[in-house]
Amino acid sequence: MSLRPLVLAALLATGAAPPPISVSGGWTRPALPGMTAAGYLVIVNRGSRPDRLVAASSPVAASVSLHESRMVGSVMTMRSVASLTIPPRGRVTLAPGGLHLMLEGLRRPLRAGERVPLSLRFAGVGSSQVGLSVGAGPPPMAGMKM
Q1: Most exposed among 33, 50, 61, 133, judged by the fewest C-beta atoms under 10 Å?
Q2: 134 with 113: CB under 8 angstroms?
Q3: How many C-beta atoms lie closer than 10 Å to residue 54's C-beta?
Q4: Is 143 a domain residue?
Q5: What pLDDT, on the 0 to 100 scale, is given for residue 2?
Q6: CA distance 32 to 30
Q7: How far apart are CA 36 and CA 100, in angstroms?
Q8: Widest pairwise Cα distance in the chain
């Protein structure tokens, strides 16, 4: 069970506003130690100001960096991205074939069915602890019948 709904309910009960940045739908594929894995998720900014994802880390990887894949002519290329702006009242989706997190130098296997801890650092709101579900593809969206 996720604690996020309980935390939001507690914030609302005390009159405190929920944090402007939320992260959901995190996933990655199974991988072996020493390899690299890609992480995907959705970042939503409910605030009135932009924020930036400036860093990420995970205890399962030597490093985590932000990358973008894109077609240049007929060739798929990948480049490192220093930060990622999340516009006010906007959303950014990290997905295959586009923006993604690279978990490099895996320290242990990523096995289907487990959850990988991930820390995201934003310039404005600070750090957020999230998880990536390990599976063959994205987890089903809440409320969708698969």
Answers
A1: 33
A2: yes
A3: 14
A4: no
A5: 46
A6: 7
A7: 12
A8: 54
At 130, which amino acid appears?
A: V
Number of domains in the chain: 1
Q: Of how many residues is the chain composed?
A: 146
Give me the phi and psi of 34, to 5 degrees please. Answer: 85, -15
pLDDT tens digits along 64-105? 999 999 888 888 888 999 999 999 999 999 999 999 999 999
Question: Rounded distance, CA 62 to CA 60, Å?
Answer: 7
Residue 43 one-letter amino acid: I
Selection from 53, 64, 56 nearest residue 103 by Cα: 64
Nearest one of 44, 31, 21 to 132, comparing CA atoms: 31
Residue 13 lies in a domain: no
Tokens (6 digits) for 32: 């072996």
Residues 6+ apart with CB under 8 A from 40: 25, 26, 27, 28, 94, 95, 96, 100, 101, 132, 138
Q: The domain that contains 116 carries what CATH number?
A: 2.60.40.1890
